[in-house]
Automatic annotation (TrEMBL):
GO cellular component: plasma membrane
InterPro entries per UniProt: Leu-rich_rpt, Leu-rich_rpt_typical-subtyp, LRR_dom_sf
Protein name: Putative leucine-rich repeat domain, L domain-containing protein
Family that this chain belongs to: Belongs to the RLP family.
Keyword annotations: Cell membrane, Glycoprotein, Leucine-rich repeat, Membrane, Receptor, Repeat, Transmembrane, Transmembrane helix
Organism from which the protein derives: Lupinus albus (White lupine)
UniProt keyword Zinc-finger, yes or no: no
Mode of membrane association: Single-pass type I membrane protein
Length: 457
């Protein structure tokens, strides 16, 4: 056993030595630049002391190199990931005094991915950004990701260059501001454009349809305005379109019906109004989630659900909707997990067909003008059948409240009073010719009983 362990040690050592000879060293210029960049990210860590050797062979997690086939070349940095994400991905941690060293943008020409997570979050201290600088990695960068860096307050145009191979531009929860300039049109390889949670303003360029590979457009939580470009309907491969929490107005473009791969459409909390729920939604068979809440579109909920059996989420809250809830929503939307119809002006009963929604986690019908009995067939997981604020609704028996939601989230609803079913009574009392089928004294007793029931209920 000891001999085997010795052999394994020698083999491993030999492999490391052999591998080190096969892998050319990191370009010395990149090595020294990387030390300076790491120092700007976290000056509390003695990086050269902890990692004195070739940073391609021994480096912090999150720093990756490529290895040229020829031994005559240097290795190069291809990925830089900064900011602690989890124990599984312990990237170089950022400090409270993190800054951006310009060498980051000029010293790594082979860089393919640059990632920052919660590195610049001291909002009282804005981080400067080099202007009028040519990024050395423009032709190679594929992913540019900045997440939750609110003190990074710079114009969006400063970071968008002629990145011809960029596939993902993800800037979430930062301080980027200004307009989405037509520079974006140059990102011809872009598959994801996520700019949510910044301070962007102005209108969206109509020329985004030139980015024919786009699958995700997320511009949510900004200050964008104007109309949603009709040209969005030409982004053929689009799977997600999220424009929520902006100031878009005009009309929701009907061209969106041409997005036959679209799975998520979120236009909630904008300024769309007075045009009703778009009928073209029923023509997007791939649709799984649609959210229009917070837009006063008005009108009735249309009958468009027959071809939308894949839908799992609908948000139609606070939209000024009127009329009844279509029974067809319960009949066709068998996979629905969330339905929000609260804070509208809907009337009529809760559809009995909602009892078919076996996967529903939440059905929110609060603050409408619904009336009638709550169907006992509705079973919603998680006590989330929300019905309060509908004074006309009632439940059959308070004692059966547990039959609904394992605790009953609508326990404040009144109990239904018993009233004779007049249609059934007429069927019993009279034949089709209007002639009584019961003796006269029996009729008298029935009418007296009905009178007593009305008095005591």
């Amino acid at each position: 056993m000891a001999l085997f362990s010795l052999f394994l040690f020698i083999f491993t050592l030999f492999s490391i030595i052999t591998l080190s000879h096969q892998q050319p060293p990191l370009d010395p210029t990149e090595q020294q630049s990387l030390y300076k960049v790491l120092h700007s990210i976290n000056p509390t860590i003695p990086w050269p002391t902890l990692f004195p050797d070739d940073l391609c062979l021994s480096s912090p997690h999150g720093i990756l190199c490529d290895y040229p086939l020829s031994n005559n070349n240097y290795s190069h940095i291809v990925e830089l990931n900064f900011g602690y994400v989890s124990d599984e991905t312990p990237n170089p941690p950022c400090s409270l005094n993190s800054t951006l060293n310009p060498l980051l943008f000029t010293s790594f020409p082979h860089l393919q991915k640059l990632f920052f997570f919660k590195c610049f979050n001291q909002t009282q201290k804005q981080i400067s950004f080099p202007t009028n600088i040519t990024f050395s990695f423009s032709s190679n960068i594929q992913e540019l990701v900045f997440i939750d860096n609110p003190s990074l307050v710079i114009p969006l145009s400063s970071i968008i260059q002629n990145f011809t191979n960029l596939r993902r531009l993800v800037l979430i929860g930062n301080g980027f501001y200004g307009e989405i300039s037509k520079k974006v049109d140059n990102l011809v390889s872009l598959e994801e454009l996520t700019l949510s949670g910044n301070n962007l303003s102005g209108v969206v360029p109509t020329s985004l349809d030139k980015l024919g590979k786009l699958e995700i457009i997320d511009l949510s939580h900004n200050n964008l305005e104007g109309c949603v470009p009709e040209s969005f309907g030409n982004v053929t491969f689009l799977v997600k379109l999220d424009l929520s929490y902006n100031r878009f107005g005009c009309r929701i473009p009907e061209s969106l019906k041409d997005l036959q791969s679209l799975e998520l459409l979120d236009l909630s909390f904008n300024l769309f109004g007075n045009f009703g729920v778009p009928l073209f939604l029923g023509e997007i068979p791939s649709l799984k989630e649609v959210y229009l809440s917070g837009n006063l579109l008005g009108g009735m909920i249309p009958e468009i659900w027959e071809n939308l059996e894949r839908v799992i989420g609908i948000g139609f809250s606070n939209m000024g909707l009127i009329g009844k809830i279509p029974n067809s929503m319960g009949f066709y939307l068998k996979n629905l997990t969330y339905l929000g119809l609260d804070n509208n002006n809907l009337v009529g009963p809760v559809p009995e067909e909602f009892g078919l929604l076996k996967f529903a986690d939440e059905i929110n019908l609060e603050n409408n003008n619904l009336s009638g009995r709550v169907p006992s067939s509705i079973k919603v997981v998680g006590e989330k059948l929300k019905l309060e604020g509908n004074d006309g609704l009632c439940v059959e028996e308070k004692s059966r409240c547990s039959d609904y939601n394992n605790g009953c989230s609508f326990s404040q609803l009144k109990q239904c009073n018993y009233k004779p079913d007049m249609d059934l009574l007429n069927a019993v009392l009279f034949s089709s010719g209007g002639v009584s089928l019961l003796p006269f004294h029996t009729l008298i007793l029935l009418f007296v009983s009905m009178g007593l029931l009305f008095v005591f209920t």
